Predict the 3D structure of the following.
Amino acid sequence: MMKKFFYPFLSFVIITLLSACSVDSDAAKLYRQSEKMKAVIVIPKTVNPNEKVGLKVEVTKKNKKVEELESMNIEIWKKGNEENKKVIEGKRTAKGTYEVVNTFSEDGIYYVKADVRTKDLHIMPTKQMVVGELSEEEAKSLEPEKEKENNHHSHH
């Protein structure tokens, strides 16, 4: 008698749990949208300490420059010292191009993160850069040359 009710009940519970785990179609749509927007951080080949340096971010969507951004900030920190990061608001210098000027106080490895927001998208690519001369230990710790992309999706 117990088995007669147990298996249908168990089946019901499993089906209910599986249906609750379905993928949100809006999340997939937002992910596809963010793939179309890209922010490329452009850093000069040589950066020396105590010199003003222009860092650019070029924002495109479907290979066209993006004009309407809600905000574009650059976060800069020295490797191992993220708690002391500097946030600078990007200034629009051309269609889809934003720039900040920064002076790095000392040699080392730094990270530059572009925090780019439109009304419905938020992307945060990060790029590593070298300022001045590196110690042997710092040179060994350099990451391969690739941009990290952290996509955050939000609807407003």
Observations:
- The chain has three helices and ten strands.
- The first strand starts at residue 37 and ends at 42.
